[in-house]
Amino acid sequence: MNFSKWIGAGLGWSFGGPIGAIIGLVLGSIADSLSKNGTPLLGDWQSKQKRPTYDSQPQARPQTQPGDFEVSLLILASVVIKADGHQDQRELDFVRQQFVNMYGQDRANHAFKLFKGINQQQIPVRQVCVQIQRMMDHASRLQLLHFLFGIAKADGMVTENEVSQIYTIAGYLGISSRDFESIKAMFYDSSDNAYKILEITKEASVDEIKTAYRKMAKKYHPDRVIHLGEEHQKGAVDKFRQVQQAYEKLQKERGF
């Protein structure tokens, strides 16, 4: 599979708006290189696609395609990696390894080639996130946030700058503070993490804990991102498992 076919497969709404501008710059430089070897230019493929419009009128969210999720993930990963003022090789390795785990070596190589081009640009964070918020379903946005915390933790610790940047991204993505704290708690080890993951306080009753568990299990169920493909369900399984573990921990502590 050549680069042109890979990037063309499964991409829909991300080729419009600010994300389209970012990817267009990257693809321009890549296409220049590919064209010297006789590889079909991406511009030919893009010119044939129906691009979405971004006006002020409310519109229904189209179903997010795997390619749109991947491009969104790469752009936001670049933002988080730069949040603490330098790029740690362990974070870059984490991004590459996650793509290998999800997509296999060949597809991961294409993704990382795109990522390196994105990483050289100044990202308009708010504009990019607003586009994602408008076009991507809530469950997929939660999955993005989970991945971003994984990147920040890849070097062994999450800095204040990284947390601040992810919090800003979450706000622009329309993710509530409670959802943010729930996912954040999955990457820390503290006595009240189980409560934070379930979005309750230590004062919650047993019935409230049970209700919270059912709510969070539904919110983080892997089937919520089934439209993104099996590879992204693996990441969703991690969130779902931590909800189960948080509930089991409270069961033992409270004896119910």
Automatic annotation (TrEMBL):
<feature type="region of interest" description="Disordered">
    <location>
        <begin position="45"/>
        <end position="65"/>
    </location>
</feature>
<feature type="domain" description="J">
    <location>
        <begin position="193"/>
        <end position="255"/>
    </location>
</feature>
<feature type="compositionally biased region" description="Polar residues">
    <location>
        <begin position="54"/>
        <end position="65"/>
    </location>
</feature>
<dbReference type="InterPro" id="IPR050817">
    <property type="entry name" value="DjlA_DnaK_co-chaperone"/>
</dbReference>
<protein>
    <submittedName>
        <fullName>DnaJ like chaperone protein</fullName>
    </submittedName>
</protein>
<dbReference type="InterPro" id="IPR001623">
    <property type="entry name" value="DnaJ_domain"/>
</dbReference>
<dbReference type="Pfam" id="PF05099">
    <property type="entry name" value="TerB"/>
</dbReference>
<dbReference type="InterPro" id="IPR007791">
    <property type="entry name" value="DjlA_N"/>
</dbReference>
<keyword id="KW-0812">Transmembrane</keyword>
<feature type="transmembrane region" description="Helical">
    <location>
        <begin position="6"/>
        <end position="27"/>
    </location>
</feature>
<keyword id="KW-0472">Membrane</keyword>
<keyword id="KW-1133">Transmembrane helix</keyword>
<dbReference type="InterPro" id="IPR029024">
    <property type="entry name" value="TerB-like"/>
</dbReference>
<dbReference type="InterPro" id="IPR036869">
    <property type="entry name" value="J_dom_sf"/>
</dbReference>
<dbReference type="Pfam" id="PF00226">
    <property type="entry name" value="DnaJ"/>
</dbReference>
